[in-house]
Amino acid sequence: MIAVARNIAELRRAVSDWHKAGQKVALIPTMGALHAGHLALLERGKSLCDRTVTSIFVNPKQFGPGEDLSRYPRDEAGDQQKLSEAGCDMVYSPAAAEMYPEGFVTSIESGPLGEVLEGRFRPGHFSGVATVVTKLLVQAAPDVACFGEKDYQQLLIIRRVVRDLDLPVQIEAVETVREADGLALSSRNAYLTTEQRRRAVGLHYALTEVVRRARKGDPAAAAWGTHSLIGAGFDKIDYFDVRDAETLEPIEHINRKARALAAAWLGQTRLIDNLPIDPP
After folding, report:
1. Does residue 181 form part of some domain?
2. Which of 19, 38, 204, 253 is flagged as catalytic?
């Protein structure tokens, strides 16, 4: 069975031994409920490093009031089995008290990047993400850490934190893994009913069409995307926008790399996704 570290000391002991042996270490931070998207992060880590650590921690600091912290999917035994079969060297599964001991007050702010899009609808979310990821990077001291492009805004913020705090780690982006019909894999997809799952594919369709329209110079491409989601049966659209790929500033003319990003609801389930837009 795969090795499991439950505290910082156990994790650091293993990683220190690997580094002393001249081996590079990759960290794959997750909240568990693992699927093929997480395993793609692991495969990228394995391709770049000699050893891999997958952290599993449902981070309470990135959930706001009324969000799904209590019902977020959890399957520790199943996750460990998947990671063992995929060749991961260690699972790091700390308790909340290990990550945030009594009296913990420090937080990492995400800055302007964290105030738009997701940050507008989930205040405090990215501070929670930045804080826990910073802690994980300090605890594990990896050479590489792998993150998925599905959470694109998160990826940009983590890169900024690593740059601003001079953390000695390479942040590796991994392309979104999708179902055959284009739906981005997510642990929260398990919440969808059969009918909602049928409608969910409309998000990828809308993003694909918005990318096409934006590259042709249509300034109303994102507005078309919003209307498309309404027509596909989504209950609420938080945002659908075209933004600069590095700064997330609004962009009307695709003369540099951009990103189409959307967040929308099917019932009580919130889906997010994005696609790159390259200049024509």
Report:
1. no
2. 38
Query: 148 lies in which domain range?
Result: 3-174
Pull the structure tokens for residue 7: 């505290």
Q: What is the pTM of this model?
A: 0.97
Tell me the pLDDT band of 4, cut-offs 50, 70 and 90: very high
For helices 36-48 and 76-86, what crossing angle results, to 10°? 40
Is 59 part of any domain?
A: yes
- Roughly what angle, to the nearest 10 degrees, separates helices 152-164 and 125-140? 60
Nearest to 45 by CA among 135, 175, 147: 147
Burial of 263 (0-12, 13-18, 19+ CB in 10 A): buried
Catalytic: 38? yes
- Identify how many contiguous H helices and E strands the chain contains and give both numbers: 9, 9
pLDDT digits (tens, 9 = 90+) for 168-214: 999 999 999 999 999 999 999 999 999 999 999 999 999 999 999 99
**244, β-bridge pairs:** 258
Please check whether residues 151 and 28 belong to one and the same domain: yes
Other CB atoms closer than 10 Å to residue 280's CB: what's the count?
9
